[in-house]
């Protein structure tokens, strides 16, 4: 099969579009023909060796796959060749963890394409228990754009953020793939949403996702803008995928007793926490990694119902994966970038 293969960690130039061994399904597994594969910033970190250094080469990245089944291994029931499916963007890789619920509490939880080959290829092999029927009727590139960010958003916003009707939420990086999904999920739940962006074109992206207030943090301090928006009280919930560079201001923008959920670190991973403020202001700090299969199912149902829109900024042929990664690195991307094998 043709695949975008890496033989070492490094910049986007490390991709080689070449032949790779076609996967065969083992017991309980299916092989999916990849219709499209979304890119996440995680793929950039993985490519650079920043996620794990014990990746064996050659390796194929790619967590977000939509496509159709082409082969079924023994012990697979309920599926047929040709079924349109969505691959879970992360699942416990140790079968000994498969009974743990929610799945993201399993010690062996891993983003798809981390140690096993991912979807930057014509085919991917996955355990049948971690595929979902694609009932969206959407173009395949729209479907492939969403599973990872949807699973993340439902877990971070609905479960950990406890967002409901009337909750006031601040979402960082509102035009990022994951931030955009968080705005949409918060709006479905009935929240009032403020979002940050770093450029004028991204204001429109965050607005289109449903943000009630969009703050260009290059033009004004976002914590001040959020305090004005909430009459000085601060928001009930901060959903953060940026990390260190905005940590202190995030907590300034959070009300007494508010919930802070972090799931990302584009702006750095080491921050300083003022313990005195933590207990006086009674902030709840929560870390969020991926989500469970039920959370993904909930997000995919919203996608199928048209309540969630896939913000596909660009698609690239798989052979141009390096260019696609450079585009994401440039920070110009608004929403999602998707590869087509
Ligand atoms: N834990 C999980 O389950 C999970 C799931 C999904 C994503 N994530 C994490 O969330 C973060 C965002 O991922 P994504 O795929 O949504 O990213 P993305 O689509 O590439 O967007 C990242 C955006 O972050 C903003 N940003 C702020 N400071 C930045 C900096 N110093 N360098 C680069 N960008 C910066 C930029 O937007 P502006 O121009 O508007 O500032 C940029 O476009 C990553 O750390 C990722 O690993 C974690």
Give a verbal description of the structure.
This protein has 341 residues and is an alpha/beta fold. It folds into two domains: 2-145 and 310-340, Medium-chain alcohol dehydrogenases, catalytic domain (Quinone Oxidoreductase, Chain A, domain 1, Alpha-Beta Complex); 150-287, Rossmann fold. It contains ten helices and 17 strands. The protein has helices spanning 41-48, 140-144, 147-160, 177-188, 200-209, 222-229, 247-252, 275-280, 293-304, 321-329, and strands at residues 2-6, 15-19, 29-39, 64-72, 84-87, 90-92, 109-111, 123-127, 131-133, 168-171, 192-197, 213-216, 235-240, 254-262, 284-287, 312-317, 336-340. Strand 11 (192-197), helix 5 (200-209) and strand 12 form a beta-alpha-beta unit. Bound molecules: NADP nicotinamide-adenine-dinucleotide phosphate. NADP nicotinamide-adenine-dinucleotide phosphate (NAP) binds at residues 40-42, 148-149, 152, 173, 175-179, 197-199, 202, 241-242, 245, 263-267, 288-290, 328, 331, 333.
């Amino acid at each position: 099969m043709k695949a975008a293969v890496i033989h070492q960690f490094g910049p986007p130039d490390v991709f080689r579009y070449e032949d790779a061994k076609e996967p065969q399904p083992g017991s309980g597994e299916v092989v999916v023909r990849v219709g499209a594969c979304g890119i996440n910033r995680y793929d950039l970190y993985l490519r650079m060796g920043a996620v794990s250094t014990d990746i064996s080469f050659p390796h194929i990245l790619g967590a977000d796959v939509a496509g159709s089944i082409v082969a079924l291994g023994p012990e697979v029931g309920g599926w047929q060749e040709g079924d349109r499916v969505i691959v879970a963007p992360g699942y416990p890789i140790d079968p000994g963890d498969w009974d743990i619920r929610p799945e993201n509490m399993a010690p062996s939880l891993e983003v798809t394409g981390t140690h096993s080959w991912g979807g930057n290829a014509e085919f991917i092999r996955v355990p049948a228990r971690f595929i979902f029927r694609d009932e969206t009727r959407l173009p395949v590139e729209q479907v492939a754009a969403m599973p990872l960010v949807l699973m993340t958003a439902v877990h971070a916003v609905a479960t950990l953020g406890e967002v409901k009707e009337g909750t006031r939420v601040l979402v960082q990086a509102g035009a990022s793939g994951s931030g955009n999904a968080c705005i949409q999920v918060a709006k479905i739940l009935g929240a009032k949403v403020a979002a940050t962006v770093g450029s004028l074109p991204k204001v429109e992206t965050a607005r289109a996702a449903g943000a009630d207030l969009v703050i260009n943090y290059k033009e004004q301090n976002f914590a001040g803008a959020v305090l004005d928006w909430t009459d000085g009280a601060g928001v009930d919930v901060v959903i953060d995928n940026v990390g260190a560079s905005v940590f202190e201001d995030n907590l300034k923008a959070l009300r007494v007793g508010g919930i802070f959920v972090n799931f990302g670190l584009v702006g750095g991973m080491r921050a300083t926490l003022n313990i005195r403020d933590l207990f006086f202001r009674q902030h709840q700090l929560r870390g969020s990694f991926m989500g469970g299969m039920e959370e993904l199912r909930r997000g995919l149902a919203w996608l199928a119902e048209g309540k969630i829109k896939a913000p596909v900024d660009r698609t690239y042929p798989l052979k141009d994966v390096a260019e696609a990664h450079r585009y994401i690195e440039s920070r110009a991307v608004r929403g999602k970038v998707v590869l087509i094998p």
